[in-house]
Structure formats: C-alpha cells, structure tokens
Write a structure and sequence with these properties.
alpha/beta, Alpha-Beta Plaits, Rossmann fold, 2 domains, 4-stranded antiparallel sheet
C-alpha cells in the first residue's frame, strides 16, 4: 500500500527522505508520523510494503519537509535512534538537496553514457557524474564535451587486478558506480567496495541470455521480445538484485543489428531510470530482490 507520489522537491534544502525497515507490527506508521510531527516536519510522500503482515519485514519510505533540516538533523537522528531501540528499526536519513557523486565505467558504446549525461544536464537526474573510466579511449570526447574527467585504464587478463586498483584510486570515495555497457567482469573485491552501490545495465531481459553477446543469442533463439535489465552487481555474473527492466517487440525479420539498434533505446531508459530511483532512495535490497518505491 502506498500514497500517491507528489511532485518532487529535490531542489529544496528542507526536504528529507527517511527509509525504515523493521519487523512488521501495528503502530509503526503512527509512531514515525508522530515523531516527524513533533519536530515540525510535514510528510509529503509515503510508500510502504510488508513482506508478511503477520510477522514479515515492514519497509517504509517517507519524504518530508522540515524547515532548517540541516541544522536540526542531529535532533532528528537522536529521536530516530531512541525509536530504533524500541522498535528494532534500521533507518537511513538523507537530505534531498545532496547530489550523490557518481562514477561511470564504459567501454566503446556511448548511448547509455550519453543518456546519463543528458539527464544530469537537464536536471532530471539529481547527481553529479564526477568521473568516466574506460578500458578504451574512444569516449574521451564525450566526457570532455560534458566537462567530466575521463580516465583511460586499459585492461588485459594479465593486468586486470592492477587495472581495477587503479580505477578505484581514480574514482575515490564516490556514492555510486554505474557500469554503462562496461564490457569487463568486475571482481568480487571490486563489488565489495560498493555494496548496493554498483549498478550494471545488461542488454537482455534477465535471467534470459546471461553473459556476452545476448542479442546474438536472442536472434539465434528466435525471440519476439528483447529487453534490458538494470541490476545491482554481485560476484555472480548478471545475477544481482534487479532494479528495472523493459522490453521491445521484434519479429522474424529482425537481424542481430536490428536488435542492437532497438535495444539501445531500451537500455538508455532502463539504466537512467534505475540510477534515478537509486539516488532518490527509492530502491531497497531485500535478499536477491529489490523493493522499488517508484
């Protein structure tokens, strides 16, 4: 059950987001609403989910406006800590005015990178792309045109570990890493550096056609729908929790190149949507799945 979203106020310094998880029981929404009311906050959006009302896990996402939020954050966090002890809550509080720092990893194809850069420039993606890292030099002009630092880090089987270490050094302590058609498999150590903060776009409707060259595999199988999947990255290839998916229809006349052409537009939309939801605190990982408060 969820209240209908209202227009976002991400440019307002007084807008906050609260994500809460706890064992489901009566009264959770009431006590959290009372806590926010007591500090003078006005709830503008509320979405919730229970895995099982008779003993599951309750998840709640709230957006609220609190005058002087930054100055009063410590007070609010103290109240949440007390409530957490009583209700076994885990919680995350963010200020909507904060712009997450994002590093984008690419190879040679530019369409998903271009989409992310456009959405940042248009104000549709409230984040800052602070670095583009690639195992090829091809997309340096794209990054340069957007004023984003570009780092060419070649990767071979023999230098993979050193290349990953160099890439991590270059991106530093970013909030999110996006693999935007980065055609390299990242290591388990790389994944562990960004738990639930590493998003990949795979050019198929997972779990179908895992791995390399899925459009060829789809063509060989004669599918009538092709798709794209944005997911969090885990050490198991293309098996992380799925954030967003979409499909497009094809028919027997479609060549592999036709599928790639159609798929590019699907990939752009799916990855950009997943990244937007992530930076707006709308995605909560629950085991191998996600809850997405879209």
């Amino acid at each position: 059950m969820s209240a209908a979203p209202v227009a976002s106020a991400v440019n307002t310094a007084d807008t906050g987001r609260l994500v809460v998880r706890c064992p489901d029981r009566p009264g959770i929404v009431a006590v959290l609403s009372r806590l926010l009311a007591d500090v003078g906050a006005n709830i503008t959006e509320s979405q919730q989910h229970s895995s099982d009302p008779t003993g599951g896990v309750f998840t709640l996402r709230l957006e609220f406006v609190l005058p002087g939020l930054s100055a009063r954050r410590t007070q609010l966090e103290g109240a949440l800590e007390l409530l957490a002890q009583q209700w076994q809550l885990t919680w995350r509080l963010t200020e909507a005015s904060y712009r997450p720092r994002v590093a984008v990893f690419v190879s040679r194809t530019d369409h998903v990178l271009q989409e992310l850069l456009y959405r940042v420039r248009a104000g549709d993606l409230h984040a800052d792309i602070v670095a583009v890292v690639s195992n090829h030099p091809d997309l340096e002009p794209v990054a340069a045109a957007a004023g984003v630092p570009f780092h060419h880090v070649p990767v071979t089987p023999e230098t993979k570990a050193q290349a990953e270490a160099r890439a991590l050094e270059l991106v530093g302590d970013v909030d999110l890493v996006v693999l935007a058609r980065y055609m390299q498999i990242v290591s388990a150590d790389f994944c562990s550096r960004f738990p639930e903060r590493l998003i990949n776009i795979h050019h198929s409707f997972l779990p179908a056609f895992v791995g390399a060259n899925p459009y060829q595999a789809a063509h060989d199988r004669g599918v009538k729908l092709i798709g794209a999947t944005a997911h969090y990255v885990t050490p198991e290839l293309d098996a992380g929790p799925i954030i967003e998916q979409e499909v497009a229809r094809v028919d027997h006349r479609a060549t592999v190149e036709d599928m790639r052409r159609v798929g590019r537009y699907v990939e752009r939309q799916v990855l950009a949507q997943a990244v937007t939801w992530h930076v707006e605190d709308r995605v909560i990982v629950e085991g191998d799945r996600t809850i997405v408060f879209a």
